[in-house]
Specification:
The chain has about 280 residues and is mainly beta. The chain has one helix and 24 strands.
């Protein structure tokens, strides 16, 4: 329904992802006819590999562990927000194993935050967000990218991996908002999930824009990749050599005529690219 948070797991050589409204964690194995599925009691926003094995799942009702071998799930922490009004959305660990997750306001008001989660709990590092998204780090770890989808803006921060401190938030790339009378075919979309490749380029899914963009560290468009679905949600790079691009997509609440014309909506799309990605960091808790 609404695929998100694709995660290539190099140890298992499989792709994990979530389906938010269906409340599922999924595992895609090469050659399997269907994914393995672990139902969730609340909407999962994102997942991350855990050091020592298993996954961490950031859900509306807090942080949970998931052991794919047994299906066992245990709660790590309650959410730092009111789950009746917000939920965890996009997130990833940094190189030191801290988990960073942007929350989402159900009302799409600027009342959510980007949280840093470590052994001391969750700390709101950036406040005033409506839809926290697009988390990724530069290859040297010195820059953190994060977007607010509602604001049509990708931001960047100087990042200290030793302390987990952020520099001031700087608008990096802004996209035009859709005008009331503007058809979807003329709308470029808004920034959703993202990934950074080995050259430091930022791949971003443009929700409702039917395209994926590859941006240079200066914010220049290096490549525009048209897609066969209106609503891509997030890319990740993986596969044996790191050069397979996986893209989750959405079909939830889309018009019937659009779904008829775009039967791959909701699928995980794959293609080969020239520049490999970076191995996913793991949560150390």
């Amino acid at each position: 329904m609404l695929g998100e948070s694709p995660l290539w797991h190099p140890d298992e050589q499989v792709l994990y992802s979530v389906d938010i409204p269906a409340r599922q964690v999924l595992r895609w194995r090469e050659g399997a006819a269907a994914p393995d599925i672990w139902p969730q009691a609340a909407e999962p926003g994102c997942i991350a590999a855990r050091e020592g094995g298993g996954l961490v799942v950031a859900r509306r009702d807090g942080l949970w562990t998931l052991d794919p071998a047994t299906g066992q799930q245990e709660q790590l922490a309650l959410p730092p927000y009111d789950p009746a009004q917000q939920r965890y959305n996009d997130g990833k660990p940094d190189a030191a194993g801290r988990l960073w997750v942007g929350a989402l306001s159900d009302a799409r008001r600027p009342e959510a935050a980007l949280y840093r989660i470590d052994a001391n709990g969750a700390t709101a590092m950036v406040e005033g967000m409506a839809v926290g998204n697009g988390l990724a780090w530069s290859p040297d770890g010195g820059t953190l990218y994060a977007s607010d989808t509602k604001a049509h803006t990708i931001y960047r921060h100087a990042f200290d991996v030793t302390t987990g401190a952020l520099g001031p938030r700087e608008p990096w790339v802004r996209f035009p908002e859709r005008q009331p009378d503007q058809p979807l075919s003329a709308y470029g979309g808004r920034p959703d999930g993202a990934a950074v490749d080995l050259e430091g380029a930022y791949w971003v899914a443009m929700f409702e824009g039917q395209r994926l963009l590859r941006l240079s560290p200066e914010g220049r468009v290096l490549q525009e990749l048209p897609l066969p679905v209106r609503c891509p949600t997030m890319p990740c790079l993986g596969g044996v050599d790191g050069r397979t691009l996986f893209i989750t997509t959405a079909r939830d609440k889309r018009p019937a005529e659009e779904l008829v014309a775009q039967p791959w909506a909701g699928a995980v799309l794959t293609l080969r690219v020239d520049v490999p990605g970076l191995p996913a960091n793991r949560v150390r808790r």
